[in-house]
Amino acid sequence: MTATAVPGNLAIRRMIQPFETAIPSRGAWQLATSVLPLIGLYVAMYASLDLSYWLTLALAVPAAGFTVRTFIVQHDCGHGSFLGSRRANTWIGRLCVPFTLTPFENWRAQHAVHHRISNNLDRRTGGADMFAETHTAREYRRMSRLARLGYRVGRHPLVCHILLPPLVFIVFYRLPFDTPRHWKRERRSVLLTNLVLVGMFGLLGWWLGFKAVALVQVPVIALAAIAGIWLFAVQHRFDRTQWYRELDWSPVGAALGGTSWLRLPKVLQWFSGSIGLHHLHHLSPRVANYRLQECIEANPALRECRCLSLREALGASRYWLWDEDRHKMISFRECGKTRPNPEP
Questions:
Q1: Which of 11, 148, 169, 330 could form a disulfide linkage to 225, CB 3.0–4.6 angstroms apart?
Q2: Which residues contact 339 (CB under 8 A, 6 or more apart)?
Q3: Separation of alpha carbons 189 and 182, rounded Å
């Protein structure tokens, strides 16, 4: 977006405000078209185990898609935007837990921090936000060789986008490792979520067999985690992402400069709850996912942002460093080819 095309903060607020009202009937429809097909697919997957495991794995693909869609429902409940009632948002968010394996209250608080510090170089936290965060080229060059190797291995596409995402949902979300000690309710939500999951999978295992449960559940959550975290990461870390120091940072600047509009095919946009309109989501998390498309259609000025095609997004995984001298994201290879300016 060019400087002349950026509407003022007040103008943006006026554009978006009419769409911040939840529509309960649309929320109920999205919930039904997310959870009910997912339950049906799980039933079909368990039934298919006696026929062919290849059929089971084939059914895991659409089941993962509906899991992502269910996570978007939980995500919007965390922002209080899915329905008009805070209590309804909280309970629906909790009811999504058995499908997403995500402790609702803890994730809600962590994600709120992400929105407050997104693309701010002076307020990076690491932890659960590592998929969207970056090091600067100077920081990377100051690392020891061993530290640089560890950083690069952890950010290799195979590790970062294939191996780690399932571990986040299956293992890391079971432990409040990056949750502050004084977040009592959030830490408690992790424990309660674990108890719910132990009870649910324990009953399923007793009824159907623990091997059958693993053969069905693991592929679904693994595929959903890979797709979901990739969607989150690529919209914060691509070649035209902008990062800011504290003095230059603003919520609007971070939304328009630091996030993208990922243009997905209609079917993928539907499964991902239009989260590809990520710049708009960061401008106002109060806009429910089912209203993002109509909001941008009604406001042409909001279309002037950093757009990514699906092809461009698939190639964005190599951008892991922010070059403060050139004000652009660069790859590890580019970092090795450039000579750093003297330290200020």
A1: 169
A2: none
A3: 13
Q: Give 213's contacts (C-beta < 8 A, 6+ positions apart).
A: 201, 204, 205
Asked if 241 contacts 329 with a C-beta cutoff of 8 angstroms, the reply is: yes
Which residues, other chains included, contact 225 with Cβ-Cβ below 8 Å and sequence gap of 6+?
165, 166, 168, 169, 170
User: For residue 159, what is the DSSP state?
Assistant: I
Mean pLDDT of the chain: 91
Q: Does the pLDDT of residue 11 top 90, yes or no?
A: no
Q: Give dist(CA 273, CA 29) in Å, integer.
A: 13
What digits encode the pLDDT tens for the residues 259-281?
Answer: 999 999 999 999 999 999 999 99
Residues 6+ away with beta carbon under 8 Å from 52: none
CB 306 within 8 A of CB 257: yes
CB 105 within 8 A of CB 187: no
Separation between Cα atoms, residue 51 and residue 214, nearest integer Å: 17
Choose the weakest-confidence range: 25-34, 76-85, 148-157, 208-217.
148-157
Mean pLDDT of 193-202: 97
HEC readout, 272-326: CCCCCEHHHHHHCCCCCHHHHHHHHHHCHHHHCCCEEEHHHHHCHHHCCEEECCC
Q: Where are the extended beta strands (E) located within the chain? A: 135-136, 261-263, 307-309, 321-323, 328-330
